[in-house]
């Protein structure tokens, strides 16, 4: 169950970043508040997952899920670069997440 909480925490973190991007530097209050709310929920889920998961593993996976997800959103929604090097680096983060999950 704690692995599921950790996955959810990472997914909510993606939503947080998307909302903060939409907040346009805090000039749009609704997305800004949604971003702050998502941050609180993400951290609460991470905290719950830490009941049984090692902190280093959980934190690395949480940030990795966020990094990969935000990168994918950036590529798909904001037409950010999908260069081979960028995708290879994201692939290494993904490989690290899988390795940590298999180890832990």
UniProtKB/TrEMBL annotation:
Main localization of the protein described in the UniProt heading: membrane
GO term, biological process aspect, one: xenobiotic detoxification by transmembrane export across the plasma membrane
Transmembrane helix recorded as keyword: yes
Cellular localisation: Cell membrane
Record membrane topology: Multi-pass membrane protein
Matches recorded under InterPro entries: EmrE-like, Small_drug/metabolite_transptr, Small_multidrug_res
Keyword Transport: yes
GO cellular component, one term: plasma membrane
Gene3D superfamilies, per database record: 1.10.3730.20
GO molecular function list: transmembrane transporter activity
Transmembrane intervals: 29-50, 57-78, 84-102
Stated family: Belongs to the drug/metabolite transporter (DMT) superfamily. Small multidrug resistance (SMR) (TC 2.A.7.1) family. Gdx/SugE subfamily.
Record's protein name: Guanidinium exporter
Species name: Diaphorobacter ruginosibacter
